Automatic annotation (TrEMBL):
One CC-aspect GO term: membrane
Domain O-antigen ligase-related as annotated: residue spans: 245-374
Protein's name in the database: O-antigen ligase-related domain-containing protein
Methyltransferase listed as a keyword: no
Main location: membrane
PANTHER family given in the database record: LIPOPOLYSACCHARIDE BIOSYNTHESIS PROTEIN PA4999-RELATED, TEICHURONIC ACID BIOSYNTHESIS PROTEIN TUAE
Alphabetical keyword list: Membrane, Transmembrane, Transmembrane helix
InterPro entries per the UniProt record, alphabetical: O-antigen_ligase-rel_domated, WaaL-like
Length: 461
C-alpha cells in the first residue's frame, strides 16, 4: 500500500479571508518543520550528556533549538500581525501547564529553599519553557501534511541512528557513544556504560540515550511510525528503507533488557492492533516479531530468558519493592503541600530520594494542580488525535493518528515506572507527539479556515 506524494488537503487553497486565497505550500527557507527536524536529529544522534560548555543539561544542542522555538512562537503571538488564525486547543492546555508550573515555582520560592533546590527549580523552569516551545510549534507551526510527514521521517531515521548505535555497541563490545562529539560541545557526565544483566555475559545498552529504560521506550514509540512509512511511503525504496528501520528498532529494544521497554512495546502493539492495523498488517507484524525473537535467541542466547525472568520474578525484584516503599514518603510530602507541591525540580536525589514514578514525582513537586496539568496535557493530546482519527478517511491518515495515540498512551503508562520528564530525549519526544496531535486535529478540521491556518500579516496583504 502506497501513498500519493501530496496529501489532497495540501492541494487546497488557503482561505485567508472572504474571497481571498493563497497556497498552503508556500516555500520558505526556514520554517517550524525545519527547526523541529533539526531538534529531533540532534536529540537522537548526539549523546544525551553532550552539552554546550558552561551550560547545564538544558544546554543540550537539541534543547537550545527548542528554546529558539519557544521564542519564535512567543514573538509571533506578541505581534498581532503574526498571530495564527483559527482555534488550537493545545494552546489552552499549554497555558494551564505553564501557569501550574509558575504557581508551584512561586510557592516553592515562598517557603524558602536551600541552594540545591533553588538551582533545581530554575533548571526545571528552563526545561519546561523549552518543552512547551516544542509542543506549541509542532501544533501551530506545521503548514501542511507534507511538512509534518517530513519531520516524522526525520524522527524515524533518527531513531534508526540510535538503534544502530545500540546494535553496534552489542556487536563490537565498544561504547561508541564516547566517540560521538560535536565541535563546541563537551560531555557533562559519564555516558551510560554497559551494565551486566543476567547470565552468559549479557549486558544492557542505552544507545545515545541517558538510560536503558529511556532508550527502550523510545524504540517502542518509534516502531509504529517506522511501520507507517514502510506501508505508505510513496516509493518502493522509501518503503524498504523504513521497513529496515522498523526492524532495527525492534531488534534494539530488547538489548536494553528493560521491563518498562517491553511494557511500552505491548502498549504500542495493543493500540495499533485495535485502531491502526488491519488483519493483514497484524499477521505480518506478528510473523516478523516471531522471526526477531528467534534471531535474538540464536545471536544472543539467554537474552529472552533474562527478559522473561524480569516479569516472572517481580515479587523478588528489589527495584519493585523500592518503588512501593516510596509511597509512604510520597504521602508525607503530599500532606505537607498538597495543592502546589514543594516546587518543580526540588526533589533532589542527592538530598532526598530517586522517585521512579513521574506521576508521584509531579504530585510531590507540583501538587494536585501540577498533576492535573500533566494529566490534561496527555488527555487533551489523546482526545485531539482520536478526533482526527475519527474524521480521517484515508488509511494513511488514520494510521498516523493511531500511531500518535500509541505514543501518548505509552507516555502515560511508563510515567508510572520511571520519572519520564527527567530524561530529556524521551520528554521532548513526547512534546513533539503532543504537538502533532494538535496539528492533525487542525488538518482534519471540517472548516477550511482552521484546516488551512495562516498568519494575519499574510491574510492582510
Amino acid at each position: 500500500m502506497t501513498s500519493t506524494a501530496l496529501h489532497p488537503v495540501d492541494l487546497e487553497p488557503t482561505l485567508l479571508q472572504e474571497r481571498t486565497y493563497g497556497t498552503r505550500r508556500r516555500l520558505t527557507r526556514i520554517d517550524a518543520a525545519g527547526l523541529l527536524s533539526l531538534m529531533v536529529f540532534l536529540l537522537y544522534a548526539l549523546p544525551a550528556q553532550l552539552i554546550v560548555p558552561e551550560l547545564t543539561y538544558a544546554g543540550r544542542p537539541a534543547l537550545l533549538v527548542a528554546f529558539a522555538l519557544w521564542c519564535w512562537w512567543l514573538l509571533a503571538r506578541l505581534n498581532h500581525q503574526l498571530v495564527m488564525l483559527g482555534p488550537q486547543p493545545m494552546r489552552w492546555v499549554v497555558m494551564f501547564y505553564l501557569m501550574a508550573t509558575l504557581m508551584s515555582f512561586i510557592a516553592g520560592t515562598m517557603r524558602g529553599l536551600p541552594e540545591l533546590e533553588r538551582n533545581g527549580m530554575d533548571f526545571n523552569l528552563i526545561l519546561t519553557i523549552e518543552f512547551l516551545g516544542v509542543v506549541l510549534m509542532a501544533a501551530d507551526g506545521m503548514p501542511n501534511w507534507e511538512r509534518l510527514l517530513g519531520v516524522m521521517r526525520v524522527f524515524v531515521w533518527s531513531a534508526g541512528i540510535m538503534a544502530g548505535v545500540a546494535i553496534l555497541q552489542v556487536a563490537s563490545g565498544i561504547n561508541v557513544v564516547t566517540y560521538i562529539k560535536l565541535p563546541g560541545t563537551a560531555f557533562a557526565g559519564d555516558v551510560a556504560d554497559f551494565q551486566p544483566r543476567g547470565d552468559g555475559g549479557l549486558f544492557r545498552v542505552a544507545g545515545t540515550a541517558t538510560h536503558y529504560i529511556e532508550f527502550s521506550t523510545l524504540m517502542a514509540m518509534a516502531i509504529p511510525f517506522a511501520i507507517h512509512f514502510a506501508r505508505f511511503a510513496p516509493s518502493t525504496r522509501a518503503r524498504v528503507a523504513a521497513g529496515v528501520v522498523a526492524l532495527m528498532t525492534a531488534v534494539a529494544l530488547p538489548l536494553a533488557i528493560s521491563r518498562t521497554g517491553v511494557l511500552a512495546l505491548l502498549v504500542v502493539v495493543l493500540v495499533m492492533f485495535i485502531w491502526g492495523w488491519n488483519w493483514r498488517v497484524r499477521y505480518n507484524v506478528g510473523l516478523i516479531g516471531i522471526v526477531v525473537m528467534g534471531g535474538l535467541s540464536v545471536v544472543k542466547p539467554g537474552l529472552l530468558g533474562t527478559i522473561k525472568s524480569m516479569f516472572t520474578s517481580v515479587g523478588e525484584d528489589p527495584s519493585i519493592s523500592g518503588r512501593t516503599d516510596d509511597y509512604t514518603i510520597v504521602g508525607n510530602f503530599f500532606n505537607q503541600r498538597p495543592w502546589l507541591g514543594r516546587g518543580p525540580g526540588t526533589l533532589i536525589p542527592d538530598l532526598y530520594l530517586i522517585l521512579d514514578n513521574q506521576w508521584l514525582l509531579t504530585v510531590v513537586t507540583g501538587g494536585l494542580v501540577g498533576l492535573a496539568a500533566l494529566a490534561a496535557l496527555h488527555l487533551v493530546s489523546l482526545t485531539l488525535a482520536a478526533i482526527a482519527l475519527r474524521r480521517s478517511t484515508r488509511p494513511e491518515d488514520r494510521h498516523l493518528c493511531a500511531a500518535l495515540i500509541s505514543s501518548v498512551v505509552v507516555s502515560m503508562v511508563v510515567s508510572a515506572t520511571f520519572d519520564t520528564l527527567s530524561f530529556t530525549t524521551f520528554s521532548f519526544t513526547v512534546a513533539l507527539m503532543c504537538g502533532f496531535c494538535g496539528a492533525v486535529w487542525r488538518f482534519t478540521h471540517p472548516r477550511a479556515a482552521v484546516r488551512t491556518s495562516s498568519v494575519r500579516w499574510f491574510a492582510n496583504e
